[in-house]
Amino acid sequence: MERITLPTLLIGGGPESLIPQKHIAELAGDLPDARHITLEAGHLVHRARSREFLRAVEEFLTPHRPEDRTPS
Questions:
Q1: Its Gene Ontology molecular function terms (predicted)?
Q2: pTM of the complete model
Q3: Which residues have CB under 8 Å from 28's CB, separation 6+?
Q4: Interior CA angle at 60 toward 4 and 57, to 5°?
Q5: What are phi and psi of 23, to 5 degrees?
C-alpha cells in the first residue's frame, strides 16, 4: 500500500455488493489520500446509480487547490 501515493477514490455498493464493505473501508483507511463513498446499489454501482457514480467521479477528478483538500 505504501506505493500508492496519489489520491484514490473508492466507491462501495453497500451491503448488496459482492465485496464486503468493511474491506473497502479498511482499504481506504490504509491509503494516505483516499476518499470512500457508498452508493447503495449492489455490485454494479456504475450501472445501477450511474448519475451518482459519475457525479462522484467528476467531483473527485476536478482539480482542487491542495489547501482546499481535507484528508478522509
A1: hydrolase activity
A2: 0.78
A3: 8, 10, 34, 35, 36, 72
A4: 105
A5: -70, -40
pLDDT of 29 reads 94
pLDDT at 64: 66
Dist CA 13 CA 57 (whole Å): 14
Per-residue cell: 9: 477514490
* Cα–Cα distance, 30 to 41 (Å, whole number): 24
Give residue 20's identity as a one-letter amino acid code: P
User: What are the pLDDT digits (tens) for 8-64?
Assistant: 999 999 999 999 999 999 999 999 999 999 999 999 999 999 999 999 999 999 976
Return d(Cα 47, Cα 10) in angstroms, integer.
16
